[in-house]
Amino acid sequence: MTATVPPPTASASAPPACEAHDAHDATARVVALFANFGPAQLPLLDQYYAAQARFKDPFHDVQGVPAITAIFAHMFEALHAPRFVFIDQIIGAQQAFLTWDLHFRFRRWRAHQPERIHGATHLRFDAQGRITLHRDYWDSAEELFEKFPLLGPGMRWLRKRAAA
């Protein structure tokens, strides 16, 4: 399933977190944000994340909205037109698990080549529907390192050897 939601804008602020009565509402808010995420939404992240939220992915492990905002700001600096397409959702008590594809082009390397990373996110929410944990899971070797000219052949060789 692909998320089709109206884009949030910096001028039209997001619904208050207290309106997210359960994990379904909170997940819908997060999907709406990230399905149309751009630099203009960075100032809105404190409406989605608890003050001491933790973000972890293959490259980062940070806590707090300013640190999380910095990670996404860097993403917009390094990538051209990053776009999340949500595929599936599993929603439980105050948490959700989402699968997604991130479509983008590198700004400084192979800028003409469309790229895609397939990943998943585990979210936990507080009582106000704000994210307390944002944990991204994706295979950095397969989805990223194998695409680099110097690393790619070695990474693919290692993967084949490990699969034996």
TrEMBL record:
Q: List the Gene Ontology MF annotations in alphabetical order.
A: isomerase activity
Domain of life the protein comes from: Bacteria
Q: Which Pfam families match?
A: SnoaL_2
Q: Where is the SnoaL-like domain?
A: 31-134
Question: Which InterPro entries does the entry mention?
Answer: NTF2-like_dom_sf, SnoaL-like
Mind listing the UniProt keywords for this protein, alphabetically?
Isomerase
| Protein name listed in UniProt | Steroid delta-isomerase
Q: Which organism is it from?
A: Extensimonas vulgaris
